[in-house]
Automatic annotation (TrEMBL):
This is N-acetyl-alpha-D-glucosaminyl L-malate synthase BshA. InterPro entries: Glyco_trans_1, Glyco_trans_4-like_N, Glycosyltransferase_grp1, Thiol_BshA. Residues 192-346 form the Glycosyl transferase family domain. GO terms for biological process: bacillithiol biosynthetic process.
Amino acid sequence: MKIGILCHSTYGGSGVVASELGKLLAKRGHEVHFVTVGRPFRLGTYQHNIFVHEVAAFHHPLFEVPPYFLTQVNKTVEVLRCYQLDVLHAHYAVPHSLGAHLARQIFGKHIPVITTLHGTDTSLVGAHQEFYEITRYGLAASDAVTVVSSFLAEQTRQTFHYTKELPVLYNFVDTDVFKPEAAADRNLMTTGDEALLIHLSNFRPLKRVTDVIQVFHRVRQQRPARLLMIGDGPDMPAAQKLAQSLGLAKDILFLGQQDTVAPILAAADVMLFPSCCESFGLAALEALACGVPVVATRSGGIPEVIEHGKVGFLTGVGEVEEMARLTLLLLEDRSLRQKMSVRARSHAITRFNADQWVAKYEQLYRFLLENQ
Ligand code: GMT
């Protein structure tokens, strides 16, 4: 098949899922065309069957802001004409769902449009009054809408009064890339008996990165430990300030955005993931695949990914004392940690391995093509 993917290329889970899906579809012999602003950061280097069509920012004195939506639709129509795509897959409702729909209208031939909702597109952006009507229309105009968790399915039904089917196609992970053996040399990151904790996110407020620092602070009071913070975003200054004020500047490394995260994740003992309102939690799944137990919150779709007491622990949002207690439990009890690590890896392989979920997307494309 020839598949067009519209996605955000910036640092965030929806772009990661779109990129990983595109790479794996290309490996399975499909021709994949990304229509994006910039190269999605997880696409990596050249891969056979992958094409990137960049949407340029058009500057004109009349436009205060370059009209991204229009240039993306225009580029998508060009790609549809030039490559005769079979399907268009929009990741993130705003604006891609509507963009894909409009592009096919202009193209003049009905090809299936699939929209995958990732979470913030319905919970934050789409639910906002400024975007509500167009998001709802984009969903209604799609031939299929998929969601990344049952939690998100329910939220979408409630928010948009969406009554059609909402297949849950979970986030997935390439377990050949995210694996314990990918670990970087720990000796370069820690000294002696230091435990290694990790956090990975885009540092938006809902990621509660200051909770990560608070948990680490409590752990550090009990034992030698180091924390690696991967990512960047609006709450970076608050996290750095808190780390300074708690005297943790030397124990916490703020690594910023990293394109290749598997070696860092796999070297860690425990991941801290204190988000509120997370639709799935892809970063947590990537840690599990690396055999790293996760201490997270019982919020949104996270319990669909992390089974409490089996592959990690769940607490209420903001319960930093309890998170610290459970983290210390994992760090002190080596045999518990090893058991959880083995279970985490096998849980990622059996429930969330990429092949299984990419095949479901493929089936969906085929079904829509055959039934249009
Ligand atoms: O978490 C973010 O802020 C990024 C966001 C996105 O849309 O790029 O991630 C969402 O999509 C991911 C991939 O499907 C999910 O794993 C994340 O849980 C989800 N984030 C939220 O729901 C907050």
